[in-house]
Amino acid sequence: MTYADIRVQKKDGIVLLTLNRPDKLNAVTWDSWREITQAVGSLGEDDEARVLVVTGSGRGFCSGTDLAAAAAAAAAGEKPAAGSRSERLRSRFLATAAIVACPKPTIAAVNGVAAGGGLSLCLACDVRIASQEARFSAIWSRRALVPDFGCSYLLPRIVGMSKALELMYTGEMIDAQEALAIGLVSQVVAAEELMPTAMALAERIAKG
Question: For the domain with range 6-206, which CATH number is right: 3.40.50.970, 3.40.50.720, 3.90.226.10, 3.30.450.40?
Answer without folding.
Answer: 3.90.226.10
